[in-house]
Amino acid sequence: MVDFDLTEEQLMIRGAARDFADKELATGAAQRDEREEFPHEQIKQMAELGFMGMMVPAEDGGAGLDTVSYVLALEEISRADASAGVIMSVNNSLVCWGLEKFGSPEQKQKYLKPLASGKLLGAFCLSEPEAGSDAVNQRTTAVRDGDYYVLNGTKNFITNGSNADILLVMATTDRAKGAKGVSAFIVEKKFKGVSVSKKEHKLGIRSSDTAQITFQDCRVPKENVVKEEGFGFKFAMMTLDGGRIGIASQAIGIARAALEASLKYVKERKAFDKLLYEFQAIQFKLADMHTNIEAAHLLTLNAALRKDRGERFTKEAAMAKLFASKVAVDCALEAIQIHGGYGYLKDFPVERYLRDAKITEIYEGTSEIQRLVIAREVLDQK
Ligand code: CAA
């Protein structure tokens, strides 16, 4: 059974993240979204607060905190700015975590330290034009040539893609071996043969950076393989288990923002000589939103606690992401409905919450993939 009592430290981290988010993120979020402007300054400040490598031990450049603290902080950041949330989530969960867990001492010194302290930014390159949900089907190749591997291929939908300094790249070293023929590489963006081939323009999380990256005869030293050849797919899946906890937290942050905006609006807006909150139809919406947010939060904390205890958490992370992402979309839709015509305008923040919420049902495994992962475990097929 899960113990949901938060420690003094966890409460303090949540408070610090909330203060920062309210003061430094909330105000400019709509404008950055409109302009598709990456929050460089804010990410720098987040790094100073230790938010870019939260679960990495201090000796490796991080804040040395647990996953529960990370979940609490990411929720607060995303409540103010979901774009900043995904930038933080990818650097923490998809880049730093894997290097901390499987990186060699040299890789930790050279790459993890600056990534965890926020001096450098990381990206995770798994998806390809023809390998999204079917992640085993990697087309990017890595061919051994002496002390190097030569990478060729294209990676799609890469969060932090154009701004990242360090890329964790999955590529196939032996296609005949399927999942066991995929390897993970640490690639410096400045390596010859790496280019940002396209910057994407998106429906939501518009001030986060999503890019297509191309590798053309890119020579990567053999020391930059993570763990060993053939470990890349397992590595990606284990990494994504943690990533899904991050996206669940991001989704909850968005859902909370939608509820908070609605609570404010219903206490100000009148119809038929009554404030909106006096209508039971509105009260029921607010009650459902609150209940679902609480349930999503508890599912996410449960997954985080299991991870912190070193227990298996694949199913719990998938359940948290599946549920929280739906809650985010539902809450954003209800928030627009509560705001009526105003909810459809850019003058109010709720239309942004809907645009931001939708991606949480897609990236780091669509809701269909989460159901597949959960069903396999429920059916005891794993
Ligand atoms: N932990 C450890 N190992 C795992 C694992 C996990 N969670 N999941 C799978 N594996 C292992 C399996 O045990 C298996 O190894 P063995 O052969 O040794 O048993 C191997 O990996 C292959 O797994 P499967 O047989 O399950 O592979 P599959 O092709 O049937 O299905 C899948 C896998 C679950 C569908 C997977 O492809 C998947 O999760 N797809 C979605 C990909 C995804 O989430 N992409 C997100 C892109 S990243 C992103 O969005 C980041 C961003 O920028 C925001």
Q: Can you identify the CATH class of the largest domain?
A: Mainly Alpha
Question: What name does the CATH topology of the largest domain carry?
Answer: Butyryl-CoA Dehydrogenase, subunit A, domain 3
Which radius of gyration do the C-alpha atoms yield?
21 Å
Structural class: alpha+beta
Low-confidence stretches: none
Q: Provide the CATH superfamily of the largest domain.
A: Butyryl-CoA Dehydrogenase, subunit A, domain 3
Strand content of the residues, in percent?
Answer: 5-15%
Strand arrangement, major sheet: 2-3-7-6
Level-2 CATH architecture of the largest domain: Up-down Bundle
What is the distance, rounded to the nearest whole angstrom, between the alpha carbons of the first and last residues? 22 Å
Helix content: 40-55%
Mean pLDDT rating:
97
Total DSSP helices: 10
Counted beta strands: 9
Question: How many distinct folded domains?
Answer: 3
Description:
With 382 residues, this protein is an alpha+beta fold. The chain folds into three domains: 8-121, Acyl-CoA dehydrogenase/oxidase, N-terminal domain (Butyryl-Coa Dehydrogenase, subunit A, domain 1, Orthogonal Bundle), CATH 1.10.540.10; 123-233, Beta Barrel (Butyryl-CoA Dehydrogenase, subunit A, domain 2), CATH 2.40.110; 237-379, Up-down Bundle (Butyryl-CoA Dehydrogenase, subunit A, domain 3). It has helices spanning 8-35, 40-48, 67-80, 82-102, 105-116, 232-266, 280-308, 314-339, 350-359, 367-378, and strands spanning 122-125, 141-145, 148-159, 166-172, 182-188, 194-199, 210-221, 270-271, 274-275. It has a four-stranded antiparallel sheet, covered by helices on one side. Strands 1-4-5 form a three-stranded mixed sheet. Strand 8 (270-271) and strand 9 form a beta hairpin. Helix 3 (67-80) packs antiparallel against helix 4 and helix 4 packs antiparallel against helix 5 (105-116). Bound molecules: acetoacetyl-coenzyme A (CAA). Acetoacetyl-coenzyme A is lined by residues 90, 94, 124, 126-127, 133, 135-136, 158-159, 179, 233-234, 237-238, 240-241, 314, 363-365, 369, 373.
